[in-house]
Write a structure and sequence with these properties.
The chain is an all-alpha fold. Helix content is 71%, strand content 0%. α10 crosses α14. The chain starts with 10 loop residues before the first helix and ends with a helix. The C terminus is likely disordered.
Length: 290
Amino acid sequence: MSAPVYDRQNPAFYALLVALVVMAVGPIAMMLMTSLKLNVDIMSDTSGLLFMPTIRNYETALCDMLWYAPEHVDYCDPTFGRALVNSLIVAIISTALTLVIGCMAAYAIVRFRFMGRDTVSLTTLVMRMVPPAVLLVPVFGIWTFQFQLDGTRVGIILVYVAMNLPFVIWILQSFIVQVPIQLEEAARMDGAGPFRVFFLVVLPIIKPGLAAASIFTFRVAWNEFLLANALADRNSRTVPVTIVNSLTEYDIDWGVIMATGMLLAIPPIIFTFIASRQIITGMTAGAVKG
């Protein structure tokens, strides 16, 4: 039996692959190394890959959340800890509300027959094409003068739900269409009501779509800056707003900023790994169907 013969790849392919890896991993590695340096090492002309790593920047950022008081911190600023809690609350609640409302809306559009159904389906996709910058002024005016929701986490959550809902409805429609109607009819013949059919028959089948939609919604809510910066106050700021506001004309603590940037990336990574078994199937199916 002869040994298999493999085609030899062009060296340019490997060069391109290495370049893509460096472009993807390089900024993260630089941010991690900078977060482990003292400001003296960061600003030094001889700063390089050889340095004594330290966690002082992380201790400074998380001083109010640690069980001990860091010796080098004279004044513990609770800004980042408060912003981290705000980001978690806003991202988790907005993701949950968007999935619940989006699932029911997508199911109604797919299964129910009503006037203007196709128009509603198309409108959800068109609304997703509107950039957040266009909504900034009207949302700020409505939230500030009419509903008085500016400066509250509730106001930010509602904006994120409205912003992410069109995409969730659009992507979940393609998954609900694939659910055989015979399964729902069999459940109804067995005595299941509409809600039991929806929660016990439909939702378990569209788990890939739910995973894909939840990852997208969580990442948008976690990283969004423009609307959060306009609507949040000192007590409701999220992490992206806090990081940008820490950049001043007179003092920029790059070590702490890089440390907060690394901490900002941890929750989305954890969330992605939790749904890693479903996200690839979900995004692939949702991209080609519909």
